[in-house]
TrEMBL record:
Its main location: cytoplasm. GO terms for molecular function: lipoyl(octanoyl) transferase activity. This is Octanoyltransferase. NCBIfam families: lipB, PRK14345.1. The gene is lipB. Residues 32-223 form the BPL/LPL catalytic domain. Belongs to the LipB family. The lineage of its organism: Bacteria, Bacillati, Bacillota, Bacilli, Bacillales. The active site is at C184. The record marks K142 as: Lowers pKa of active site Cys. In the reaction, the free carboxyl group of octanoic acid is attached via an amide linkage to the epsilon-amino group of a specific lysine residue of lipoyl domains of lipoate-dependent enzymes. Pathway: Protein modification; protein lipoylation via endogenous pathway; protein N(6)-(lipoyl)lysine from octanoyl-[acyl-carrier-protein]: step 1/2.
Length: 225
């Protein structure tokens, strides 16, 4: 049986505000006061450091961050450091995963990757995985970073997901936003975007709208943007 998913797009939201909203929704979904959500949005320039905690992968000091107007957050998702900024579509699925024998947290990550791979295929792009890394790649360049948190429910058996994926859409985001870090701690590979790969122009909100059917079909929801 398919479940209904509330889907929204926000042109820009400060990272701290979005993080607080995720935590509020996680509690509400656990308590069955809210339905499941997919938040799609863009952030102003922001670096986030995940639970692996490798501050040495941030190449800028506090003064440089202030000069460049880049916020910094140490957060509770898995993974290392990454960049969020205008021209990147960020997706935060807040989904209830029922506990029990069928619970597959690893499979959830693979499904997120598959949503992006399927969407890229519709754009004529061959997306792929690298076995040693989470995310989606085009050749040896990462086009989509993925990092999640599984929040153990207090009111029922299972988990509510938070954080999610960051798909690079606009050209140049890899050269500008990512050059102040070692993205995800990976030095040997680069970063790319939809526009860099195809040479075509993409609108971030339209990209969000186009991705939604791939997400709802693979995860078994109904809902539209």
């Amino acid at each position: 049986m398919t479940r209904s998913l509330h889907i929204s797009y926000i042109q820009e939201m400060e990272y701290g505000e979005a993080w607080d909203k995720q935590k509020q929704l996680v509690r509400a979904i656990d308590e069955q006061q809210q339905g499941e959500h997919l938040l799609l949005l863009q952030h102003p320039p922001t670096y986030t450091i995940g639970s692996q905690r490798h501050p040495e992968h941030l190449l800028l000091g506090p003064e440089q961050l202030r000069e460049q107007g880049i916020a910094l957050f140490e957060i509770d998702r898995g993974g290392d450091i990454t960049y969020h900024g205008p021209g990147q579509l960020v997706g935060y699925p807040l989904l209830y995963l029922e506990g029990g024998k069928g619970l597959d947290l690893h499979g959830y990550l693979r499904n997120l990757e598959q949503v992006i791979i399927n969407y890229l295929g519709s754009c004529g792009i061959e997306g792929s995985r690298k076995p040693e890394y989470t995310g989606v790649w085009v050749g040896d360049e990462k086009i989509c970073a993925i990092g999640v948190k599984f929040n153990k429910c207090r009111q029922r058996k299972g988990f509510v997901t938070s954080h999610g994926f960051a798909l690079n859409v606009k050209a140049g985001i890899g050269r500008e936003g990512f050059r102040g870090i070692i993205p995800c701690g990976i030095q040997e590979y680069g970063v790319t975007s939809l526009e860099d790969v195809t040479g075509r122009s993409y609108d971030v909100e339209e990209t969000a709208r186009e991705i939604v059917p791939y997400f709802t079909e693979l995860f078994g929801y109904t809902g539209e943007l």
